[in-house]
Amino acid sequence: MRLNPFNTGDIKVRSSSGGGVGKAGGIGCGTIIIAALGYFVFGLDPFQTAATVESVQQGTQTSGPANTNEQEICTSSQYAREACDGLTSLNRTWARVFEEQGLGDRFQQPTLDLYSGAVRTACGSGNSSMGPFYCPGDQTIYIDTSFYDQLARMAGNSGDFARYYVLAHEYGHHIQTITGISGQIRSAQQRATSRGQANQLQVRMELQADCYAGVWAGKNRNLIEPGDIEEGMEAAAAIGDDRLTQGRVSAENFTHGTSAQRSQALRTGLRGDDKACDEYTIVR
Fold it and tell me: Do you know which PANTHER family this protein is assigned to (predicted)?
């Protein structure tokens, strides 16, 4: 995808490092797969997962001071540059959407934390083996870019659009937070009478985030290159509940949608109409 270069004046970026857990790229693939399964498929609270890791590591989750030099962070690697380019585009695109709908005063930019190893968040302790995640408590997207190498193996390609899709999906959760959708669904989950019912709500929210990722791409279709859409579809399919569990899904561990559902949600968003994503919201 031919995104314009990042502009540090349009983004909020920082980089946090974990204490003793391991730097990006230093965690084995098996660890990433197992923990990603817990987060993406089985519906485990990623911060409960991190707490378990923390107890095993005997307190090694303490993060060092965050680097807030955005230029330095964004030029530290190819993945970091892509993330900053993507964040710049996402901010501009969604700010324009809110403005066009007369909701400009409600738009807020999220922060992107390109952390390494482990990190403390307003939602608890995070760990790179959890995969990318969004914390509504501090409105921050957390990504350890070592995940992208694992995604390439899972999706069978190393295209940049697959990585942009992941960032745009997490950004979709930010949109749900500032519009109140996330809070409504969380309240409904608390009223759920079963784990399966709560997970159905979670699936709807995850599919809407996929749809929002597609909206961003659809509104920047002039920047899409041949093969980009296919890369996005492959990435969405690779992290479908049925693919990751080899078909062994149930109401108790079905949290993000099947490969087909995730691909379809992304395809729906590619029309460029964010209102089309309302079909995934069951709490209005």
Answer: INNER MEMBRANE PROTEIN (PTHR30168:SF0), PUTATIVE MEMBRANE PROTEIN YPFJ (PTHR30168)
CB-based contacts of 142, cutoff 8 Å, min separation 6: 113, 115, 119, 121, 126, 132, 133, 134, 135
Q: Contact at 8 Å (CB) between 119 and 39?
A: no
Q: Where are the domains of the chain?
A: 11-280
Q: What is the pLDDT of residues 11-32, one digit of tens each?
A: 999 998 653 333 333 323 332 3
| Measured CA distances, 255 to 12, 66, 71, 245 (Å) | 30, 32, 37, 12
* Burial class of residue 275 in the structure, from the number of CB atoms within 10 Å of its CB (0-12 exposed, 13-18 middle, 19+ buried): exposed
Asked which of 20-24, 132-136, 192-196, 243-247 is least confident by mean pLDDT, the reply is 20-24
Identity of the residue numbered 122:
A
Q: Of the candidates 229, 236, 267, which has an alpha carbon nearest to the alpha carbon of residue 280?
A: 267
Query: Can you say how many angstroms the Cα of residue 283 is from the centroid of all Cα atoms in its chain?
Result: 21
Rounded CA-CA distance 107/95 in Å is 6
pLDDT in tens, 229-260: 777 777 665 655 544 555 555 555 555 667 77
Residue 211 near residue 268, CB atoms below 8 Å: yes
Query: 3-state class of 168 per DSSP?
Result: helix
Query: What's the token pair of residue 174?
Result: 């930010």
pTM: 0.79
Q: Are strands 133-135 and 140-142 parallel, antiparallel or unpaired?
A: antiparallel
Q: Are 90 and 168 in contact (CB under 8 A)?
A: yes
* Tokens encoding 195: 């784990």
- Assign 50 a pLDDT band (cuts: 50, 70, 90): very low
